[in-house]
Structure formats: C-alpha cells, structure tokens
Specification:
By secondary structure, the chain is α/β, with parallel strands linked by helices. The chain has six helices and five strands. It binds adenosine-5'-diphosphate (ADP).
Length: about 160
C-alpha cells in the first residue's frame, strides 16, 4: 500500500508556511491527504468549501512537480479517526516555535496513545516561512495590510472577499 500522510489543520487561509510543509511532506509519502478541520465552536473567516477549494488549487503544482497524489478532505472528529479514514500511517504537523512545540508534542503524544499504529511526524518550519501564521495574516488583511508575502494570490482574493462581508 502507498505510504500515505495526513496533514490536518484549519488552513484559514492556506499560507506559504502550509505549502512549505506540503512540499516537504511530499518527500516522505506517496500520497498526501490534507484534512480541513471543521470543528464546531472554532470560528473561521473562510467557509470550509472555500478552504478546500483553495487548498486543491494551490497544491496542484506540488502534486504535478513531485508525482505525489494530493487530496483534500474535511473532518469534524478526531484527527486520528480522520487519518485512519485516509489510510494514513503518518500524521504531519509543522513546528514554528516553542509554543508550537509544547502544544504539538503533547497532542502528538495523546494521538499516539489513541492510535499507536499512526506516527506523528513534525517538520520544523523553513526559515523563510517560519513567521507566517494564518491568524496574523487575517489581522493584517483586516487592517488593510499587504499579505502577498504570506499567502497565494487566490487566498488573498478569498480573504478580501470574506472581509467585505
Ligand atoms: P491548527 O488550527 O490545526 O493549528 P493551522 O492551519 O493553523 O491549523 O496549522 C496547521 C499545521 O500547520 C500546524 O501543525 C501548524 O503548526 C502548521 N503551520 C502553520 N503555519 C506554519 C508555518 N508558517 N510553517 C510551518 N508550519 C506551519
């Protein structure tokens, strides 16, 4: 069976930091499934359909370039259950700083306890994109700042449209 990775997140919106993790994950797996979390109570700027559409669009060049099959799903339950549905043996997460580290390692260990057959792999953020966070991108965009260094142009348009509403 093809080695499959599951990369979960909010992707609200997708950033160049996420894309860095996707591109580097493509070296580790033959199939990569991106999971857009739609958990109740988590407020998002972009609706889930838009987040999926953007991810599909902006990951296509990576799939074409690497030959890795990339798909996007949504999930509202446990990450480990969504990873199992995707037939993934790996959960992939990115680490930017110490606060990501503390949170992600704890979560990875709890997921490991829930699903010992699934390994969580942490990729350290690349220097050029390490500072990018979806939450800050939204704040900057809301105040009229230029976010073109941080997110692809399709995502910029989607954020601008969502902020208008
Ligand atoms: P979540 O709500 O699950 O944290 P995010 O979309 O914010 O969703 O992030 C998804 C994953 O991508 C997390 O593992 C996060 O640490 C990672 N990530 C986010 N931004 C970056 C970045 N700039 N570089 C590397 N990893 C990142």
């Amino acid at each position: 069976m093809a080695r499959t990775g599951f990369y979960p997140g909010s992707f609200d919106p997708v950033t160049y930091g996420h894309l860095d993790i996707v591109a580097r994950s493509a070296r580790l797996v033959e199939k990569l499934v991106l999971g857009v979390g739609t958990h109740a109570g988590k407020h998002s700027l972009l609706d889930v359909k838009k987040r999926v559409e953007l991810l599909e669009h902006v990951t296509k060049p990576i799939a074409e370039h690497t030959g890795v099959k990339i798909s996007v799903v949504t999930f509202a339950d446990l990450t480990v259950d969504a990873a199992r549905r995707a037939n993934a043996g790996l959960i992939i997460r990115g680490l930017r700083d110490a606060s990501d580290f503390d949170y992600e390692v704890q979560m990875g260990q709890m997921n490991g306890a829930l699903a010992p057959d699934i390994e969580t792999v942490f990729l350290a953020a690349s220097p050029a994109t390490r500072m990018i966070a979806s939450s800050l991108v939204k704040q900057i965009a809301q105040m009229g700042g230029d976010v073109s260094l941080f997110i692809p142009k399709e995502a910029q348009a989607a954020v601008a449209a969502a902020l208008k509403n």
